[in-house]
Design goal:
This protein has 79 residues and is mostly helical. It has five helices and no strands. Helix 2 crosses helix 3.
């Protein structure tokens, strides 16, 4: 992915996680059950308080049916 920029902080990752969850139509409660995490952990990830480890990220990618690029790269705005 030449020319793309990685996200700069955990807030950006959190925003991308939240967007993916909402786009998937899944609640935080459902995600917490599917990942065996507390709902508060999902909220902390989405609000940029904590960063999920690689194993949790893989679970979330599978649940949301997205690509890792959708989470870690900054999307270019159409001008």
């Amino acid at each position: 992915m030449i020319g793309q920029k990685y996200i700069k902080n955990k807030k950006e990752l959190g925003k991308n996680l939240k967007k993916a969850r909402i786009k998937s139509g899944i609640s935080q409660d459902v995600v917490s059950k599917l990942t065996n995490l507390n709902r508060s952990s999902i909220s902390y990830y989405e609000n940029g308080v904590n960063i999920p480890n690689i194993f949790i990220l893989i679970k979330l990618i599978r649940i949301y049916k997205i690509n890792i690029d959708d989470l870690i790269f900054v999307k270019k705005q159409n001008r």
